[in-house]
Amino acid sequence: MTITEIFNLFLLASTIHGFLFCTVILFSKNRREKSMLFINLLVLVISLNNLQSWFIAKNFFAAYFYLDYIHIPWHFWIAPFFYMFLIHYLNIEKQRKNLIKLVVPVFLIIISIRIGFVYFYSSKNTADIAYLFEKYTSIEEIISLIFSLSIFFYTYHILSKKEKLFANILSFDNLRWIYTFFKIGGVAYLFWIIALAVTVALDFKGFIYSYYPLRILTTILIYWIGYQAIIQLRLLKERKNLRNQLQFVPSGFASAENTNEELDEVKKLQFKKIDAFVTSHKKFTETKINLESLSNDLDMSSGRLTLLIKLYAKKSFNEYINEYRVELAKELLSDASYKNYTITSIGLESGFNSKSSFYLNFKKVEGITPAAYQEQQS
């Protein structure tokens, strides 16, 4: 098989896979979630884009002039749909603009111009219109690239600079997977710029191979974010349910008996104060807790805090916190009412920031994996 044949097979296979994905989500229990709606639309437009590319590569509409030249720029929707997914996943849609209202009229104008272009040049020489069409398509694509990049950077700005808007979500999800999407997405945009630059350099004659890396990377990336969204949404819901059922006390050093501790109290009483605060407020469930943040909560130097934990708990700070996390995880894993929750959700809600960290520390304390421990309790 030639490279072109392999690529065309990839387009067809990814299109079928995308349509199956959308169908499954459409009938899933999460279909009513706005965030999943936009992820589904994101996968749908990339599938339609690949299907259209496959039709063009196979010359399905060569005998039909209008169908052969009226190509829908589905890629125009990728960045807007991802933006809409993100603001709904972060529950900040009321504080952010609904870009769909802006994108729809722009998209319709682009389609109208394309139809008018094809209609106006339909009586021209085939060779002439082919060149003009390539030139027009490239100009349209440059506009789409600028538009898409603007939304991409605006979305990243919200994620990285507006954390106060979605502090509640951050307490359940560190959003590393979304940051990963942005990193790989940046590479995809670089491929797009290169492909367009090659087209312009060749006087709009086109060089289809320059788009192969872009199409492959974009397709894989969009499907990856789709599956990640499903997994993370489930984890988010499970962690919210766990937290509601565990009824955590709001964080903050609010107790009068805790705030009014005298600095010259004996070390043992100081450690009891630390331990009581950590357990009563379940500080160990906060994934971002560290020596500095806890010492600030306790109005104590980090050096003093380290010394007291080492002296009375006989552990380092991390070991001290992780053992409390493991104890909470053990309670949840052995409770039959949580048997339908994923082990990952339980680990994250216990305070660990990843599945691997949970498994590593659990085995370090208990000598067995969380899955094996749960099996023993059933």
Task: Explain how this protein is built.
This protein folds into two domains: 243 residues, Rhopdopsin 7-helix transmembrane proteins, CATH 1.20.1070; 122 residues, Homeodomain-like (Arc Repressor Mutant, subunit A, Orthogonal Bundle). The protein is built from 17 helices and no strands. The protein is elongated and about 95 Å long. The two termini are 53 Å apart.
Structural category: mainly alpha
Largest sheet: none
The CATH architecture term of the largest domain is Up-down Bundle
**Radius of gyration over C-alpha positions, nearest whole angstrom:** 27 Å
Number of strands: 0
Number of helices: 17
Q: N- to C-terminal separation?
A: 53 Å
Could you spell the SSE succession in H and E letters? HHHHHHHHHHHHHHHHH
Q: What is the CATH C level class of the largest domain, in words?
A: Mainly Alpha
Percentage of residues in DSSP E strands: under 5%
Number of domains: 2
Low-confidence stretches: 248-264
Query: What's the helical proportion of residues?
Result: over 70%
Q: What fold name goes in the CATH topology slot of the largest domain?
A: Rhopdopsin 7-helix transmembrane proteins
Give the overall silhouette.
elongated
Rounded mean pLDDT is 83
